[in-house]
Amino acid sequence: MHENARQHGLFGTDGLTRRSFIAKSATVGAAAAGAASILSACGSGATTSGSSAPTGGLAELPGGTPKRGGTFTVGVISGGSEENLFPGTAVGTPDFVRDFTLYNNLFNLGKNVTPLVPGLALSAEPNKDATIWTFKLREGVIWHDGKPFTADDVVYNFQASWSNPEENFSSAILAGMVDFKSVRKRGNLTVEVPLHYAVAEFPTIFAYYDFPVVQNGATAKSAARKPIGTGPFKFVSFTPGTESVFEANPHYWEHGKPYVDRLVVNSSFTDNNAIFNALLSGKVNLFPTLPLLTARQQLSSKQVQILSSTLAAESYLFAMRVDKGPFADVRVRQGFKSLVDRQAMIDGAWSGFGTVGNDLLGPGTAYYAEDLKATHDPEKAKALFKEAGVLGQTFTLPTTAFLPGMVESSTILAEQASAAGIRVSVKTESAATYFTPAGGFLTRPFGYEVNQPVGSLSLAYLTEYTSSAPYPDTQWAKGPNGAAAEKLISEAIAATDPTKAKELWHECQKAQFDEGGYLGWGNLPYIDAAANNVRGLSAGAGFSYNNWRLQDGWLA
Description:
Blueprint: H1 5-9, H2 25-28, E1 51-52, E2 58-60, E3 71-77, H3 93-102, E4 107-110, E5 113-118, E6 121-126, E7 132-137, H4 151-161, E8 184-185, E9 190-194, H5 220-225, E10 233-239, E11 243-248, E12 262-269, H6 272-281, E13 286-287, H7 292-301, E14 305-308, E15 314-320, H8 330-339, H9 342-349, E16 355-356, H10 378-388, E17 394-400, H11 406-417, E18 423-429, H12 431-434, E19 446-451, H13 457-464, H14 482-494, H15 498-515, E20 518-524, E21 527-530, E22 534-535, H16 544-548, E23 554-555
Parallel strand pairs: 3-12, 17-18
Antiparallel strand pairs: 1-2, 4-5, 6-7, 7-9, 8-9, 10-11, 11-12, 13-21, 14-21, 15-19, 15-20, 16-20, 22-23
Helix pairs in contact: 8-10, 9-11, 14-15
């Protein structure tokens, strides 16, 4: 799950950093009983007043009676010429906001990750062993060109888009899992999806941001000319690296939304200070993932409103390669995990936002092991380093200033390492190359990853820990216990009985906690800014503005 790996170059070899799954695993576990029950009702009603998140920001902006009209302008750092309009090849924040407003997913992450909520699919139900899934689709959805949304569109996505690495950076997650040729419609709004092996949490994949549904026949080339979606806003114009303009979709299936007439994505900015100044001056009214020190200051000065998700689920991890190099010795990995003062890192790198991480993926998902807690013990770390014969050695940590706190936390790690008798040399590299093969992505012995929240442990493990994983930062499957680990992961992914699934997933997580290559030091909530006249928007753990639900907001 790489926060925006691909922006970093992480996904698909660049494409799958943040995994997103749908149903609440515990409920999905009762596969034969029907996965539909894991979905909560769709919709996000406005509140009459803002409600607070634990960080001090607002979980929801003030509500009231929505007012129609006006323009939302979102200020984001430019993605340059790489920006595009096809969801499977999104490369950064400018693309994500466009994709979530032009298109819809089959399912969406909930405000606290799980349970997921219905999107274009109302339910997904498995057969007894979770090897065949049947998706029931939403009735009455219209494409931007007036055509009705049907099962043919979803079948096309499986067979032509989601199976094609050129069209979808995250296609690797489905390769070998889905029997693409056998995907078929079983009615105008019903799709049957056979799998090559059991996946008890299969629907959760389709809440992931690379899997919005495109129209039957659409390609990246056709979307570059005129993208057609089912989302709340319709395409007007697009200049990569500068600006994109969209208008309200009058036939959107969430009747009555959106409230604003136009959406503008201003991606001409090259630094965060410029975006914040534009927010203060009224040139933009939405600033996603603003610098955390600025957010902390705004909690007091209140020049703008600060939204903060109630669940911190964006995971920051130092990645140590387990199969070769200096971290192949498990004692070195354990030493690094022991030397870190995680709360001090949160205070220093994130201005106090966030919660302590415990080296595990998937906070907020079903079966997440809340009982496994990392401890700060530099003396234990020093003893482990001495035993491994590396006391006094220097470890080089490549890092990048791609997301808030990456460089700062790397520097704090280096400062804390001295108490454990080792040295860490931080090497700050360009964000443009850090998450690319040329920059050492997936090959370097030590590095950084930021993982977007996902809906299930299944997706998290499929994308990072198996032999076919597209983003194996730690090369877990190549480690000394790789074969046994993969067998255990496969059993957990297939487990449809909740009790058995909980047991197997805890065993998987205990192995990562004890011997894994991720030093997951903290989980960050989504922290976003809005001008003081913005109403109706809320924070969510899956992405900015509750998965970019800009259709919920209006201008007072």
